[in-house]
Amino acid sequence: MPKHHPKPHHRHPKAYVVSVNMGYGHERAAYALRDIAANGGVITANDYPGIPKRDRMLWKESRRMYEAVSRLQPLPVIGPYIFEVMDRMQRIESIYPRRDLSAPTAQVKQTNLMVENLGLGKHLIDKLAKNPLPLICTFFIPAFAAEIYDYPGDIYVVICDADMSRAWVGMDPKRSRIKYFAPNGRVAERLRLYGIRRENIFLTGFPLPKEVIGGPEGTVIKKDLMTRLCNLDPNGIFSAKYIKTLNAELGAGTCSINKKIRPPSVMFSVGGAGAQKALGMTAVKSLKHQLLREEITFRLEAGTKKMVADYFVREIKASGLKRALGRNLFVDSEPDRPTYFHKFTERLCKTDILWTKPSEMSFYAGVGLPIIMAPSIGSQEQFNRVWLKMVGAGVSQNDPRYTNEWLFDWIESGGLARMAWNGYIEAPTHGSYRIDSIVTGEKYELEKLPMIV
User: Fold this and answer.
1) Rounded Cα–Cα distance for residues 89 and 167 (Å)
2) Residue 177, CA atoms < 13 Å, CB-side half-sphere
């Protein structure tokens, strides 16, 4: 296995941080690294100033297909079939039995063809090469282009899931100079099976926004977790068992019975393609009486999809919940992606429970958020689901029509408080600081940070 805290190869105050706006996952990782991004911010590989028309067209078609298929997936009969065809192309093979998985797949060959023969990404790489800095990519195609077109700086790739398909590794992994940031031990092991040399694998954890962490000491996480545990353990069942541990880690008098600070707050986060919006409304309708009595706060995160936000508002009013709208029932929608990531991060600090499909958001368990998992969309999300259950930080949703029953059972029993604590202890939290240190040489006391599973 690679070392947990490798020394940086170079010392640069800044790096090029490159993402793509397909879904939210790749940009979410890039957002967490924006403070080391050169030239004023993150570069969007499929939508930057001066992008060639051919590149824009190729990227646009890929994104359109991804989002269309994601929206079709919940539909009966035809939806799962179409999605299965696409998902099979990027399926993650079982890691057992362990074997050499370095041979390029059809998808890798197709990607290589687009980059090498059609020139996808060449314009961007040539542009950045004029003033080379370390290049951090949260999607594999820009990294492939950088290697193929001889980018003169270091090339890094951030893996955004708890396991990964062969698509993220190029044609000749044993000779590749691309370096990878692995969010957990399983990804680090997977990279070795794909043929990546040990010295090019860095076990860092997923990059979470530094403002929700509060430095290597985790001051913000601890403060928010103290409040969250009180809200999620109203009967003191969890804190009674672990009071000494809680006091030692978070401070004396962390929680006691009847110390609830506010009604529990749930955030239902819709993915970038807008799928599962109906699921969110089913949960809201189930919680109608609790919402009208202000016994719970519920946020419907529509991202940048105005159509999804309009759907939520329309359905809320039709369900007799207009009085709760804007008081303890919120529909959050932003005009653009940078604003969305900023506002989302702010709202997250005041959230007690995150309800979402097991996407890259699974890693937010590391800040002490219990995760209720909606149905998975895609092979990688199945692996994220397994990982969340292994660290004890997530649970699959029950029937959303009866959310008013099972959700409060989970709160009253202290079960969600236990998951919040497990996520804080077991899931990686300091990926942003580790990546910062490796790329820029910024000195953090990384040896004091928790180990990564």
Assistant:
1) 9
2) 14
pLDDT, the chain, mean: 89
- Same domain, yes or no, for 270 and 390? yes
Number of domains within the chain: 2
**pTM score of the predicted model:** 0.90
Ranges in the chain, pLDDT < 50: 1-9, 69, 71-72, 75, 77-86, 257
Q: Which residue has the tokens 């270091």?
A: 154
Question: What span, in angstroms and rounded, lies between the C-alpha atoms of 72 and 376?
Answer: 13
Per-residue pLDDT at 3: 44
The Cα 126–Cα 119 span in angstroms is 11
The CATH number of whichever domain residue 231 belongs to comes to 3.40.50.2000
**Which range marks the domain in which residue 359 is found?**
212-426
In the prediction, which pLDDT does 378 show?
78
Token look-up 């192309």 returns 89
Answer whether 374's CB lies under 8 Å from 276's CB.
yes
Same domain, 204 and 266: no
Structure-token match 């926004």, residue found: 209
Residue 48: predicted pLDDT? 96
Q: Using the 8-state DSSP alphabet, how is residue 35 labeled?
A: G
Distance separating alpha carbons of residues 317 and 321, to the nearest angstrom: 6
DSSP state for residue 273 in the 8-state scheme: T
Number of residues that make up the chain: 453
Asked whether residue 6 is domain-assigned, the answer is no
Residues 422 and 435 placed together within one structural domain of the fold: no
